[in-house]
């Protein structure tokens, strides 16, 4: 009897050994960390997942939100390190920085980062670092302000940005230079968290003719506070983030399609999973005309007594009128 049991055990052990050899490998785990939840960054996250699904990459995701807190971003990075993720994705500058600072050998792909060089993520946009590459969302600031000037005469332009966010600081410098080039007075104020945005708006609103909002994640996440103060004072808002503009009364928004940016990010992740090294991959930029969206809100223009040139209305991808968003094909 003992011999039979021993023989059966041996056969079972061999069977288990053979099955483990032929078992399908576990899907790669991809850690995704975004600095805060708002329409643009949520769209990047969705685009990333959809692209990998379309490429038939069977992956698992650990989706994390730092809720605007750098300490939380660092904790998420440590979590990904302990999980030994195959690839880590940092959506926005602070979370990408936290991942790069913690994960020294794991591939990191950044997305929606304005200036990856100044942020310390890569040494050059012409090639990746040893384990870091990604997608930039450097936005056409001067052209956006020039578009605003076609709808409203502006002598003083207000700008709110987060002093602790590298992306926002870089863009503030670009806005300041654009205002100088266009002979507009630049009126700035800074915040450290989204709860300060409303007070910051109130501090400058009576001194400006319009407000420009960049792709500053902290400020964009508090867009309701921006537009609430602006509309009460009949001051137009020009936004660089069309994704969030559909829900809030901004006069115009011109910027990247962040869902498409997520798809590009997904392509880069797939290439790395297939064996490509990040240092062989330059930073990618959204340069196609189809990558950019223009939203014009005719309802806001009417309330502010402004006339939007017809050529702008015709060129817009989306127009808000009578409370409805009309998307053009």
Entry keywords:
single chain; 329 residues; alpha/beta; Rossmann fold; 2 domains; eight-stranded mixed sheet; six-stranded parallel sheet; 13 helices; 14 strands; globular; disordered N terminus
What is the CATH architecture annotation of the largest domain?
3-Layer(aba) Sandwich
Strand runs, count: 14
Widest beta sheet: strand line-up: 7-6-8-9-10-12-13-14
Helical percentage: 40-55%
Return residue spans where pLDDT drops below 50 for at least 5 consecutive residues: 1-5
Structural class: alpha/beta
Shape: globular
Distance between the termini: 77 Å
CATH superfamily of the largest domain, by name, is Response regulator
List the helices and strands and how they pair.
Blueprint (H helix, E strand, L loop, with lengths): L1 H21 L6 E6 L4 H16 L5 E6 L4 H14 L3 E5 L1 H10 L5 E6 L18 E5 L4 H9 L6 E7 L3 H16 L3 E7 L5 H8 L5 E4 L3 H4 L2 H10 L4 E3 L2 H4 L6 E5 L1 H16 L10 E2 L6 E6 H6 L6 H6 L2 E4 L2 E4 L2
Parallel strand pairs: 1-2, 1-3, 3-4, 4-5, 5-11, 6-7, 6-8, 8-9, 9-10, 12-13
Antiparallel strand pairs: 10-12, 13-14
